[in-house]
Amino acid sequence: MEESVRVRVKQLAEAGDAALPAYASDGAAGADLRAALHEPLVLTPGARALVPTGLAVELPAGYEMQIRPRSGLAAKHGVTVLNSPGTIDSDYRGEVKVLLINLGSESVTISSGERIAQAVIAPVTKAAFVFVDTLSGTQRGEGGFGSTGRD
Ligand SMILES: O=c1ccn([C@H]2C[C@H](O)[C@@H](COP(=O)(O)OP(=O)(O)OP(=O)(O)O)O2)c(=O)[nH]1
Ligand SMILES: [Mg+2]
């Protein structure tokens, strides 16, 4: 897959040599993000932690970075991204952090350099929100939350 968007990445001094987000295969949608830790982090069952990556990014205007879970971590250990997908705004210049939660029944140790999540770069549509008095009619109308397929 050809790279079409340039994302400037800054290594944060205190994190040392944090690695660039990297695509694990040619067609990977997400670039893996690694933990940047001074010491291993223990996530007890039910615990959550905002895990630093040691990186700050400059996304082009009109794009976001989505922080998504890695299915391997979720399937093996029950560790996922609590606010999935996390949103990195194009004007954010702080450290990219990953909010992990351990939904498993055993403690999980996250080591520095471990791949903890994946970043998907996606275009953003910016809407103009306007108040109106009436909305157009549709077959669905106000039905939702499982309203279809009933007799
Ligand atoms: O998983 C995440 C989610 C967010 N952020 C950073 C980048 C993002 O641009 C900023 C704000 O995120 P969000 O809009 O989701 O949080 P908020 O609670 O609405 O905070 P704010 O008022 O700062 O927008 O926090 C992360 O580093 N990791
Ligand atoms: Mg916000």
Automatic annotation (TrEMBL):
Keyword line: Hydrolase, Magnesium, Metal-binding, Nucleotide metabolism
InterPro entries, A to Z: dUTPase (IPR008181), dUTPase-like (IPR029054), dUTPase-like_sf (IPR036157), dUTPase_trimeric (IPR033704)
Residues at which substrate binds: 70-72, 83, 87-89
This protein's encoding gene: dut
Gene Ontology terms for molecular function: dUTP diphosphatase activity
Species for this entry: Jiella mangrovi
HAMAP family noted in UniProt: dUTPase_bact
Family to which the UniProt record says this protein belongs: Belongs to the dUTPase family.
Pathway(s) per entry: Pyrimidine metabolism; dUMP biosynthesis; dUMP from dCTP (dUTP route): step 2/2
Protein name: Deoxyuridine 5'-triphosphate nucleotidohydrolase
